[in-house]
Amino acid sequence: MKHKLEHLLQQAVAALKTQGVLDPELAVQINLERARDTQHGDFASNLAMMLAKAARTNPRQLAEKIVAAIPQDNLVSKIEIAGPGFINFFANPDSQFQIVKQIHDAGPEFGLSKIGAGKRVQVEFVSANPTGPLHVGHGRGAAYGSAVADLLEAAGFDVEREYYVNDAGRQMDILATSVWLRYLEECGEVLPFPSNGYRGEYVRDIAFNLHKKAGNDYRRPAELVLEDIPADEPQGGDKEKHIDALIERAKTLLGMEQYGSVFQVGLDEILADIKDDLQEFGVGYQHWFSERLLMDDGSIQQALQRLEVAGYLYKQDGAIWFASSRLGDEKDRVVIRDNGQSTYFASDIAYHMNKLDRGFDQIVNIWGADHHGYIPRVKAAMQALGADESKLKVLLVQFAVLYRGDEKVQMSTRSGEFVTLRQLRNEVGKDACRFFYVMRKSEQHMDFDLKLATSRTNENPVYYVQYAHARVCSVLRQLDEKGRARNLNLGMEHLNLLTESHETELLGTLSKYPEVLERAAVQYEPHQLIHYLRELANQFHSYYNAHQFLVDDDRLCNARLNLICAVRHVLANALSLLKIHTPEAM
RNA sequence: GCGCUUGUAGCUCAGCCGGAUAGAGCAUCGGCCUUCUAAGCCGAGGGUCGCAGGUUCGAGUCCUGCCAAGCGUGCCA
After folding, report:
1. In terms of domains, do A156 and A268 share one?
2. CB under 8 Å to A89, separation ≥6 — which residues?
3. What order do you get walking across the sheet with A407-408 strand by strand?
4. Using one digit for the tens of pLDDT, what is the confidence trace for A107-134?
């Protein structure tokens, strides 16, 4: 409907250009939106006001010329000029009824779009370090990222979901060493645990399993482990130096092969947990991309070489720097440290080069808001590599703050005390969890109220939408219990009996769904879909209370049943897109 | 200090590319279950869109300054 009207306006503009009313060179942007007030028809355009200046007339006069130039079309029953020069379109009521038939015919396909057809887009999200289980902060990225990916797919894009696994670097060494130290405790060695190690209970679990499987294979005496290790922070030392020395000790005492095994056990167990967790949350990936792969296959050296050739690298204080400040970053960044090791940023340059080489039309990164300062340097790197940096879209997700009623839930990663995503899902349930995470715009700071999300009352918006779906199913069951049968065709033939204001309103809202879906996808804003669902559910509940569906008149009864089944289809399509259940009874 | 994000009803938030009288939910108050599920519906009250300027036919929306909150500002990842 909307696209059709836009096309009509375009034809009108073209006609006015040939008539000489408008400059043929003039670039015209057709602006059409849903009228907010039904008095203003169904769609409104401000075209005349936009073009008035260029055409050197007043908006209302121009509007009249535009209206005169619009071709006849049976979708439109009336066109009015109103206010300062709005052009208001009134849809033909008969055409409005057709939406019920369209929805029925398209079924699960209704609302899908083809605007992304032929375009490949990659969405990278979550990508949490595999040093521990996912917590509630990652949950928002997971829910938002998968919703964005699913929306893009619904809009016709060829979508590839990817998780970047930071399986290299110092944090992983700290994890491996933490696992080993806990393992030594399992073996019966007595030694202090570093303040900067991973203290979470899950590390003990991994160590326990390792001990069960490998016995004392990795055991070394505590005296040897602790010999000449600089003091930890609580003892007045430096916690970084302390842990680094322990990492080195682990490597020398175990040898690289055994150390590698311990490292791998930690990585594998945590990654398996993360994958499992995400899958239960309805989040799936096409690729798990390993950072270690980049180091092993020479990608990093290759990327740095390209920067070198382009003249963006220089040496200073023993380190190698990337001159990102020449490309908009606030300062230059180290890529190779003075100890010869490459930085995380160097990996990221290679990773983004790899993404570009894979030929995506668009690359979407979903990051926590605390990484926002990182965007300029990555974009700078892409430019330096000669790539089109506009291909990269970084979406930031603000942190979610957990509340239980009025009380803030405290979290601390250091102490290992945090609410995991798994705990949250168990407490709140997958449906409410996803709904709440996606309900807000991603860049909004979010308060996640556990009490509200778990409540089974009218305060909880998830049930409100699901209830609408269940109610339609319930009506159909009632029909059956009364010994009546649905007559689909009879209903379709008499859709014109749907003249109540609630019915007209619902028809309009149903026809909006494809536009909402498309906009939510293109703008990366799944919350728009949630708001639409609440609106649709609200209109349905009002309708339900105002009118009886199972009336004696078979024609009206079936027309109404067809309408509410159309509502059910749209609810189901949108909810399943968001991986939220559509209960048939509640 | 600088940078990014945010500021809309008592609370949590929508508000599409600048458009017509700024909207929901919760909370508060008043109604609706012998009829398809009351996890629902109907109604009422509640606003200086952080503040001050500017741009124009028109600003919650764009620009500038200020105020407030969160985050960032490592040879950490």
Report:
1. no
2. A5, A41, A42, A43, A44, A45, A76, A78, A79
3. A407-408, A400-404, A446-449
4. 999 999 999 999 999 999 999 999 999 9
Residue A358: CB less than 7 A from any atom in strand B: no
Q: Model's pTM, two decimal places?
A: 0.92
Query: For A331, which DSSP code?
Result: S
Tokens standing for residue A489:
């065709």
Same domain, A171 and A159: no
Of A residues 478-507, those with CB within 7 angstroms of nucleic strand B are 478
Distance A242 CA to B61 C1' (A): 54
Asked whether residue A393 is assigned to any structural domain, the reply reads: yes
Is the pLDDT reported for residue A148 higher than 80? yes
Nearest to A363 by CA among A390, A384, A386, A383: A390
Please state whether strand B lies within 7 Å of residue A293 at its CB atom. no
* Greatest alpha-carbon span in chain A: 95
- What's residue A157's pLDDT? 96
A178 and A193 fall within a common domain: yes
In a shared domain, residues A374 and A429? no
In the structure encoding, which two tokens stand for residue A141, read together?
Answer: 């990225």
Answer whether residue A301 is part of any domain.
yes
Give the model confidence (pLDDT) of A392-423 as tens digits. Answer: 999 988 877 777 766 667 665 555 556 789 98
Residue linked to tokens 């909402």: A516
Q: Name the DSSP letter for residue A284.
A: -
